[in-house]
Amino acid sequence: MCAVPTDEIYEKYLQKAILEINELGDEIARTAGGARVPVLGSGHPLADVFLLKPAPQPAEVQEGVAFYGRAGQAILKSLQRLRVDPMAIYGTNCLKFADGDEEESRPFLLRELHIVGPKLVVAMGERAVAFLNTLAFPLADAVDPEGSGLQRWTPTIQALAVPDIDESLDEQPAKTRFWNAFKALGPWWAELPPY
Q1: Per DSSP, what are the bridge partners of residue 89?
Q2: Separation between Cα atoms, residue 93 and residue 67, nearest integer Å
Q3: Strand ranges for the chain from DSSP E
Q4: CA gap 171, 36 in Å, rounded
Q5: Are 93 and 38 in contact (CB under 8 A)?
């Protein structure tokens, strides 16, 4: 019997994740019904790091893509500073529409998490942490929004609670609070074993 190369197995998982993320995007678009603009997650469909914001901002609604605009640029700069590969990141919002509600969006986020299968969820702001804590994710512990550093979320996924990036961009003290929490991602990334 011949062993299957690891790269080939990974490629199969990647193709499956791409298909599932695309199907999820189609379902979110159908839910919008043409009357609303869906805001879809973006990034690598098998990312190690899953960034989670509470709700889409106007630029994200205009483009239909999470982390489009100021927040996305700030995150990219932060990732560069921490030497974290931006190709290992997936970002999304709890709410999938500007006028969306939690009940409508919860199943979409749950599926996104199952598809991506990250090693770390970065919940941005108390609203994102509270939303994450309401998901019926298997074996999940509650994430402490005031917790500093990495926390256990599930047996295979850690969580990092940081301030809301969208609320942190206009004033220096808020930027500093965000950076001081977010920079824990750097050492975590540096210790992540290669595939």
Answers
A1: 49
A2: 8
A3: 42-43, 49-53, 89-93, 120-124, 150-152, 158-162
A4: 31
A5: no
Rounded to two decimals, what is the model's pTM?
A: 0.94
Distance of CA 93 to the CA centre of its chain: 7
Distances (CA, A) of 145 to 107, 128, 176, 179: 22, 9, 17, 16
Query: What are the distances in angstroms from CA 18 to CA 15, 137, 176?
Result: 5, 21, 36
Residues 6+ apart with CB under 8 A from 146: 161
157 CB contacts (<8 Å, ≥6 apart)? 118, 119, 120, 121
> Order of strands, edge to edge, in the sheet holding 158-162?
42-43, 89-93, 49-53, 120-124, 158-162, 150-152
pLDDT at 99 (0 to 100): 87
Q: Give CA–CA dist 139/145, Å, rounded.
A: 19
E-strand ranges in 74-135 read 89-93, 120-124
Q: Which fold has domain 6-190?
A: Uracil-DNA Glycosylase, subunit E (3.40.470)
Q: What is the pLDDT of residues 117-174, one digit of tens each?
A: 999 999 999 999 999 999 989 999 999 999 889 999 999 999 999 999 999 999 999 9
